Structure formats: structure tokens, C-alpha cells
Amino acid sequence: MFDQLSDRLQKVMKFLKGEGKVTEKNMADALKMIRMAFLEADVNYKVVKDFEARIREKALNQEVLDSLTPAQQVVKIVRDELTAILGTSEKPLTFAGTPPSIFMLVGLQGSGKTTTCGKLAKWALGHGKNPLLVSCDLKRAAAQDQLKMIAGSLNFPFYEMTAQQMAAPQEALAELVRFTKNRGYDLLLVDTAGRLHVDNELMEELRLVKDILNPIEVIYVGDSMTGQDAVKSGQAFADKIGLTSIILTKLDGDARGGAALSIVSVTGKPIKFVGVGEKYDKLEVFHPDRMASRILGLGDILSLIEKAEKETDVQEAEELARKIRKQEFTLEDFKKQLGQLKKMGSLSGMLGHLPNVGPFKNLGQAQIDDRKILHFEAIINSMTAEERLNPKVINGSRRQRIARGSGRPVHEVNQLLKQFLEMQKMMKKSAFQKILSSLR
Ligand SMILES: Nc1nc2c(ncn2[C@@H]2O[C@H](COP(=O)(O)OP(=O)(O)O)[C@@H](O)[C@H]2O)c(=O)[nH]1
Ligand SMILES: [Mg+2]
Question: Nearest bound ligand to CA 142?
Fold first, then answer.
């Protein structure tokens, strides 16, 4: 996700961390690097300008905290500002006090509206809702077919509108609302017509639908791959119809990041979810803070832990979190973690979540394959219980014994121990503990 932008910003972070002291000169250099990275990622130029100005002001006026070096402070400022332009904090969807809640999805053709309807239905079901799906393309009755198929395959009820009904949309839409209420559905997901470009006829149709259905959420679905085009049309929808939220799709592709980094500032509306794949479970709640940390290579520890908790034994994950908090992270736990990584399946899918520190360093470059995990496991398996609990006792002859036992070269044993110690050190860092304690 946003690989190039991420690469470039990580270079700036590294540059700053290496500087120690903040001067006008290195700040100017860093800001220039940031500006170039943003412009290349197709971020709106005004957003870039404001971002730069805020960082400059904060960085050069900052009082030096004891705990951080000045340059680290700038890193923190950049992270905070990046979080701010992504929307500061996550914003949940709003549900109506009295059901049904009506969510209307709007956007250009191909942006992912219909797919996202299916995803939202699935997400809502998981949150105790009972959704009904409908497609309100008043001009093309055939436009309903795609959503009908999706609803069928996911086992959601679908409300079909006849061509006859569409000829009298006012009455048909009012009937739709009555039906939803009477049948006890608490959520109506409304797919709408799309065009290749924003046009007046479409906007009029959408306004009509909106006026009669009175949706609590009007969600703009934007294709992140189209960069500033998604932002511009989002702005047009915001001006002409009025939006409450944004969902960006196709973040699993090679989008440069320009849409995500511009759309909140430009439209003033929050990104609530992102689509990360074609399947219907590929919808993620959008966390601006995590996304910022991830782009800056500070890792996405919370997402990683959440994923681990969901997909592996929850108790095991809790135990691990407890141990890390108490700083008794052992090689045994390290091995468990490797096992969990394996269980979670596709390692490459996980890499984006890993912090770029300690044993995870440069994993993003995907040099590590599943074989490496097996080798590390073999090495740990060849250790005695005492060695696993207290790796300090592993001297030269023990290393040779472990190497022989696991069939791996000694330097690999050394590498594993070194990485483990780095990880243990990282676990002790207070920042990490703070994140973990918020999980309690
Ligand atoms: N990779 C990926 N593809 C998506 C995502 N969301 C939608 N798509 C694909 O984008 C194409 C257009 O989606 P569709 O829902 O028909 O768009 P609509 O015209 O706005 O209704 C389809 O091929 C979808 O499978 C996403 O988050 N990731
Ligand atoms: Mg569609």
C-alpha cells in the first residue's frame, strides 16, 4: 500500500533520526524531501503546502522534550500531521436512533459502489444488523442485476424494483421505505447509478433519491487508484448532493496515496472504511493514526495484534501481551509468534503490518520466505528449555550443538539470537508498552 510514498517518507524519517539536532538547514532539506514525496504520490498541492507549513512552524517552535531528541520530535510531528490529514481519528458510521438506518452509496462508475454494498452488508451483519439491499438506478433496470447476484451469493435479502415502479420514482421510493420498516429491517443499503464523469442528470437523480429516502449516511465511494480524479469528483458529489462519509476502494492495488492524503482535507468528510480487495470481507475500518504510522514505517502494531487475536488463539495472544508487558518475552514466545505468522497464512500479506524494527527490519523487502520461519523454528527446537528461557547461557559450544541439532549453520543461530535480543529490547521500549497496555 502506497509503497513508493512510504519508501520516500521512510528515508526522510531515517535522515531526521540520524541528524539529532534540528537546524534550519536540515529542516529545509527534510521538508523538500517530504514535498517531493507527496507531489509524486499525487497529493493535492494545497494539502502539500499546508502540511509543509504546519510542520515547519511546529518543528522550529518546538520546545525540546527531555525524552526525545529534537529530530525524533520532528518525526513525531510529521506523524501527527500525517495522521491529521488522514482524518485524525477513526469515525464510525452513524446509525439512526429509530431504525431503519438508510445508507446511500454514491460515486462514479467502476469506483466499487456495488461491491462495497455487499461488503457493508457483510460487515453490518457481523455487527448485529439485519440489512436489506436495493439498487436505485432509476434509468437502467438491468443495473440491479449485479447487486442482486451479490445479495444472492451472500444470502442477503434484495428488494427488486420493476421498470414500472421506476417510472414513478417518488412513489416507488416511498414504498421502499415503508417496506423496509414494515419488514423489520434495521439497515437499508442503497446502491445508486454511476457515470464515467460527474454530470447533471446523474446529480439530479441522486438528489431525488436522497430527498425521498433521507439517508443518515451518504457515502462517497472513491477509487483510490484514480488519485486526484477521485478527490475532484468527491468534491463535486459533496457540493451537489452532500456527503457524510467516504470509503476509498482498491487500496490493495498500487495506488500512490494521493487520494487518501487529499480527500479528507478537500471534502471535509471522514474516510470511514477502505476496500482492500475484491472479496466481500475485504473492507477495513480506517484508522488514520495507524495508516500514518504504517506509511512512515513505524509499523502497525495494533493491527498486527488484532489480526493475531482474531486468527489465532486469543488466549495465546493475551498471554503474549501480558508477558511482553512484564518484559518476560522468551525464545519460547518468539517461536510461538513464528508459528502464528505461519498460521496467518500469506506472509506477504502480513508484511505491511510489521513494524520496521528489530527482527522485522526490512521484512518489507520480502527477503524472508516461509522457509526462514521453518529454519528459525528448527533452531529454537534444538534448544533446551533452560536455553529458551534464558538465552544468555548460550555460549559458543552450545551454539555449535544447536546448529548441529537443527541442521542449520552456526551463523544462522547467531543471527536468530541477535534478532531475538533486538526484539526483546524493542518490547521493553516504553512506547510499545503503552500501545500494549491500551489493549488491557
Ligand atoms: N482490488 C479491488 N477491487 C475492487 C475493490 N472494490 C471494488 N473492486 C472492483 O472494482 C470493479 C468495479 O466495482 P463495482 O462495484 O462494480 O463498481 P461500481 O460501478 O461503482 O458499482 C469490480 O471489478 C470490483 O471487483 C477493492 O477494494 N479492491
Ligand atoms: Mg455498480
Answer: 2
Q: Which triple of cell numbers denotes residue 419? A: 534478532
How high is the mean pLDDT in each 10-residue block of the chain (440 residues)? Answer: 87 82 84 92 93 88 59 80 93 94 97 97 94 91 91 96 87 95 96 91 95 97 95 96 97 89 96 96 93 77 52 60 63 77 56 54 50 85 86 91 92 90 67 45
Mutate to test the pocket of ligand 1, among 134, 278, 281, 283 (most ligand atoms within 8 A of CB): 278
Q: Cβ distance 74 to 22 under 8 Å?
A: yes
Peptide bond into 355 cis (omega under 30): no
What is the CB neighbour count within 10 angstroms for residue 20?
11
Which atom of ligand 1 is closest in space to residue 117's alpha carbon?
A: 15
Q: How far apart are CA 258 and CA 247, in angstroms?
A: 14
Q: Which three cell numbers stand for residue 192?
A: 445508486
Q: Give dist(CA 27, CA 245) in Å, integer.
A: 35
pLDDT at 438: 44
Give 279 Cα–ligand 1 centroid separation in angstroms: 9
What is the per-residue pLDDT across 143-166, written as a single tens digit (0 to 9) for each? 899 999 999 999 999 999 988 888
Nearest-10 crossing angle of helices 331-343, 410-428:
90
With beta carbons less than 8 A apart as the criterion, state whether 412 and 403 touch: yes
Residue 123 has which C-alpha cell? Answer: 460487515
Please report which ligand is nearest the Cα atom of 195.
1
C-alpha cell at 243: 456527503
Q: Which domains does the chain have, with CATH numbers?
A: 3-85 (1.20.120.140), 101-295 (3.40.50.300), 301-437 (1.10.260.30)
How far apart CA 202 and CA 200 sit, in angstroms, is: 5
